[in-house]
Amino acid sequence: MRLSNKTLARKLGYGFSINESVSEDEDFIARAKSQVEKLPDFHPWKFIAKIDPSKIDLSNLPNEFQNDLDREKKKGIQKYLNAKGFYSLAIDGDLGKGSRKAISDWQASINAPSTGQLDKTQYREILLYQQSHGSIEELNFPNEISGFSYWNLDKSDLRYPDDVEVSVKHRLELNDERERLRAMYANGEIPDSEVQRLWWQRYNSFPWWRDTLTRAIDNVHGQSPILNRFWHFWINFFTVNTEACEGELFGNYYLTIRSHMTGKFEDLLYDAVWHPAMQEFLQNNQSKGPNSKIAKWMKRNGRLASINENLARELLELFTVTPASGYTQDDVNNVAYILTGYGQIDEPGADQTYFWAETNEPGNHTVRGKTYKQSPSQKLRALCKDLASDPQTGFHIAKKIAQHFIADAPPPEAIELISQAYNESGGNLIVVHQAVIDAVIKFSRTGDKFLQPEVWLFQVHRAIGGELPLKFVGDTDDQNGPQLNSTLGELGHLNCRSPQPNGWSDMAIDWLTPEMMDRRLRYIGQIANRQLLESGFDPEKYAKMLFGAGSDSAQFVASAPTYSNACMRLFCHPKFMRT
Amino acid sequence: MDRRNFIKGSIGTLYMLANPSMAFPDTKITDKRLLIVLLRGGMDGLASIPPVGDKNLSKIRKDILVNGVEDLDGFFGINPALRFLGSEYHQGRAAFVHATSFPYTGRSHFDGQNIMETGNEQPYATNTGWIGRAMNAGGYSSLAVSLPIPIILRGNEINSNYFPSNFGELPSHDYDDISKLWNDDHQLSGLLDPIMGRNIPPGRGDTRELVTFAASEMHKPNGPRVGLLEFEGFDTHALQGNEDGHHADNLAELDGVLQNFKNSMGALYDNTVVVTVTEFGRTAAENGTSGTDHGYASAIFLAGGLVNGKQVISDWPGLSESNLHEGRDLLMTIDARDVYAEVVKTVFDLTDEDITRSVFPGYQPNEPLGIIRGPVLSD
User: Fold this and answer.
1) What distances in angstroms separate CA A458 from CA A10, A228, A286, A310, one per listed residue?
2) Helix (H) or strand (E) holding A528
3) How does residue A150 score in pLDDT terms, banded at 50, 70 and 90?
4) Rounded Cα gap, residues B19 and A168, in angstroms
C-alpha cells in the first residue's frame, strides 16, 4: 500500500503541524526530492521572532530623516526593497539614485506618492518587517529569550559562525579570556562564582544551548525539514562532542557539513576530518610525526614525538571502509602519519586547513596497498578521495542511512538501491539522498521505525505548532533548568553530548527501556497542562488528522478522561512513536 | 588550559538486575550480590596496576609514568589514586588480575565493547549479553534499573532500568491508561510495569548517590541481586597524566564510588563481588601525545567479601618489545573469561557446562584461578 503523505512527512521529515494541511493529492515525493537539491539560507532564529509595534518609536525623528539615517539602517531599507522585489543593486547603505527609484516604485505599489523619500509611516512598516524577517540584530525576540543581561546573551551572536577563521579566532580568544579570569580569581579580584559567568559572557560560550535551540527551532518551524533530517544524519555520522571542542568550533563544523549536503561525500569527508572541531574531538591536533621537524627539535630537548591513532582509526572504521574491509595496524599507522600536521589552530605558519608541515611525518605512506606520494598537505585529500570511492564505504553509508530512515534491519534491497546510487554517482549526496527517498517509498512500511527521542520531541513540537522552551538557565554546567537542552538530556538524547565517536544509536533496542518510556510520558504530562493548554492545542483534532477521523485511535484520544491524558494518548501512542 | 576528554569520566550509570519478586515471584533468590563495573574506552592496566618490578616500564613510559606507586606484592603496585582498593587489597578484600583480556586483538572500541558485552568471540554475533545469559542459565529473572540498557545485561526476560530524572511525576492512573494502550504492542507491552511498581524520589543523583541507592535496593529481601555501573572516559589517547591528571582522576572517581558502595552495603558486602570489565588495554609505550593508543591486555579489579583477596594473579608476559603483542601491546596471558566464568559460577551457581553452553559460547572453562572464595558466613 502506498504510504500517505502524512506518513512520509513523518518518516522523512519532522512531521506536520496542527495548523498545516497536508494534502494527499500533492506529489510529496517530487517536493521531497527537490527539497534536497538546494540549500536555503540558514537563518532559523527568524522563525521565533515576533512583531511588536510598541518597540518602534519614531517620535523624535524629523519629517525629513532619510538622508540622516546611519549606514546600517540604510542597508536595512535596501534589504527590505530587495526582499520585496524592487531593488537588485548592492546593499551598500548608500541611498543613491537606484535606491531612491526603488523607494518610488515601492511607494507606487502601495498607492502612495512616488517621492523616493520615505515618510514615517512607511519607514515604520519597514522596521516592523525587519522585526520578524531581518538580520539577527533586527529581529524582535519573545520576552523569554531577550534581555538576558545576567549572561549578556543579548550581546552575543546567536548565529553559527559561517567562517571557520572566525570560529577559530573566538576559540583562541576564549582560552585567553579563561586564563585572564582565572588569574583575576587567583589574585582575589573576583570570586569563584564570577569566573564562569564572566567567561560565558564572551562570544557564544553557551554553545550547547545555542546549538539545541538552533536545531530545534529550524526543525519545528523551518521550511526544509527533509533536508534537515539528512543534515542531522551526517552530523551524527561525523559526531563531535562539545565537551571536546569548545566555543564556536562545532557550530561552524555543523555549517560545514551542511554546505556539503548538495555536494560529494569525498569533500564532506575531507572537510569534516581536517576541521578543527573533529581535530580537537579525536585529539589528532596533538599527534606528531616521529620524524617531523618538530620531532627533531623535541628530541634535542629530550622529548619523544609520535602519533596517536585516534582519528586515523575512526576515519577507516566509522567514516569509510569499516573493519570488514580488513585493514591492518600498519594501515592505521600510515593514516595517522598522513593526518599529522592538521588541527594546528594556534600555529601562525599553518595553512587555511590548519595544516602545519612542521609536525607532519615526512615521506611516502602506504594505506591499503596504495602509496601516497603527494606533497604533505595533499595526501589527506587523495586518501579521502580513495576511501570515499571504495564500494565498502558506499555499502557502509547505505546501511547506516537505511537504518536511520527505513528500519533497524533494513531490507537488503533498500541498502542495495542506496549503495548503487552512491557508487554510480561517485558519492553525489543529492543522488544518494534522493535514492533514500525512493527506498523509503519502496521498502518502508508504516510503523517500521521507532523514533529516537530527539526526533520524537521535534515531531511533538512541530505537531503543536511550536511552544519550545526558549529560555537560557545557565547557572550550572549541568543545565538542570527548564530549558530545551536539559529536556533533551532527560530524554537521553542531547545531540551535542553523544557519549562515543560512533554517535547516537538508530536501534530501537537502545531506546526502548522502562525509564526512557517513562520520561516521554512524564514530559508530555509536564507540558500538557502548561504550554499545550495555554496554546489551545486540540489533541482530538490532531488525532483525527494523524490517525484518520472515525478511526479507533482517534476515538481513543477523544475519549480520554483529562486533557493531559488525551495528550499522552496521542503523543505516546505506538503509532505516533513510530513512523 | 585543562583539556577535557570527549568523554566525562565522572558520569556513571547504574543498572540493577535480579529482582525476582516483581515480575517472577517463583524464581530463585541468590544470597550473593554482584556489582559489574564497565570501564568504557579501554582502561590502561599498566597505569592502574603498574608492574614496577618490570624494568622496562620506566623505559617506555615517561610523561605518563605513575610515581608514588603503593606496593602490592613486590612486583606489582597500585596507582595512588586507587587508595580505597589498595587498602582493601591489604585487608584481603580486593585482588587484581593482570595481562588479561577477552581474546580480541582488533583494537576497535565498538567491536571490542561488543565482544566484552556479548561474550562472543566475534563482534555482533548475538544481541544478548553474558551477564543476562548467565542469570537466565541460573534461573534468575532480571530487573535492570537506568538509561539505555547495555548489551551485557540483555538476554533476560525483563530488563528494566533506573536513572534519576527531573521531570515531574505523573498520577498512577496515567500509567495504567498508557500501559493498557501499549498492551498489544510487540515492543512496548509491559514496559511500564516496573515503573508503576517503584517508589523512587526524583532528582538527579551523582554516581556516589546512585550506588547508595543500589545498595539500599540490594538490601531488600526481594530486591535486585546484580547491579551494573558504567564509566566512560578511559580512552586516554592524549595527556592521560600519571599519578595526577585525567586517568588518575577517573580512577579516583571509581575508587570513591566503590568505597561508597562498600559503606552502603554494610554487612552484605561480605557476600558481594565487585568486578571490572573493559574492552581492551592500551599500548605499552606512551604515544606522541602523552597518552596511549588502543592495545590488547589490561587488568581486572575484583573487590568484596567473596574475593580471595591480597593477590595479583598474573602470568607476566614482560614489556620488552619482543614480548609485546605485535611489538606494541601488553600480551594477554589470562583469558578474561577465566575470571568472569569463576565469578558467575559462584554468584549464580552455574556449572562449566552452563558456561560453555550459555554464557561464553565456544569457551571451555580452565582450572579456577582461585580468585573467589565462596560465601562467607557471619563471624
Assistant:
1) 11, 12, 38, 33
2) none
3) low
4) 52
In chain B, the residue whose alpha carbon lies closest to the alpha carbon of A504 is B148
Judged by CB atoms closer than 8 Å, whether chains meet at B177 and A568 is answered as: yes
Beta bridge partners of B71: B77
Instruction: Tell me which amino acid residue B106 is.
Output: G
Check CB contact under 8 Å for A500 and B162.
no
The DSSP bridge partners found for residue B274 are: B35, B303
Would you call B239 an interface residue with chain A, using a CB distance cutoff of 8 Å?
yes
C-alpha cell at A305: 614525538
Which of A500, A504, A567, A577 is the best residue to mutate to test the B interface, defined by the most B CB atoms within 10 Å of its own CB? A500
Residue type, A405: F
d(CA A197, CA B325): 49
Contacts of A178 in chain B (CB under 8 A): 1
Return the SS3 of A103: helix
Cβ pair B177:A518 closer than 8 A: no
The model's pLDDT over B318-352, given as tens digits with 9 standing for 90+, comes to 999 999 999 999 999 999 999 999 999 988 889 99
Q: Which of A269, A268, A267, A148 is nearest to A210 (CA)?
A: A148
Task: State the ipTM, two decimals.
Answer: 0.86
Pick from B242, B268, B228, B311: which is nearest to B40 by CA? Answer: B228
User: Does the pLDDT value for residue A474 go beyond 50?
Assistant: yes
pTM of the model: 0.82
Under 8 Å between Cβ of A278 and A289? no
Q: How many CB atoms lie within 10 A of CB B10?
A: 16
Q: Do B148 and A505 touch (CB under 8 A)?
A: yes
Do B291 and B233 contact (CB within 8 A), yes or no?
Answer: no
Find where cell 527531573 sits.
B166
| Across A373-387, average pLDDT | 97
Q: Which long-range contacts (CB under 8 A, 24 or more apart) does A61-64 make?
A: A61/A120, A61/A123, A63/A119, A63/A120, A64/A117
Give the Cα separation of B347 and B373 in Å (integer). 11
Residue range B281-309: average pLDDT? 93
Tell me which amino acid residue A224 is.
S
Give the C-alpha distances (Å, rounded to integers) separating B229 from A42, A463, B112, B328: 42, 38, 18, 30
Predicted pLDDT at B201: 52
d(C-alpha A390, C-alpha A399), whole Å: 15
**B33-39 vs B226-231, strand pairing mode:** parallel
Nearest one of B307, B367, B374, B305 to B341, comparing CA atoms: B367
Name the fold adopted by B13-164+204-359: Alkaline Phosphatase, subunit A (3.40.720)
Closest CA to B202 of A522, A527, A489, A472: A522
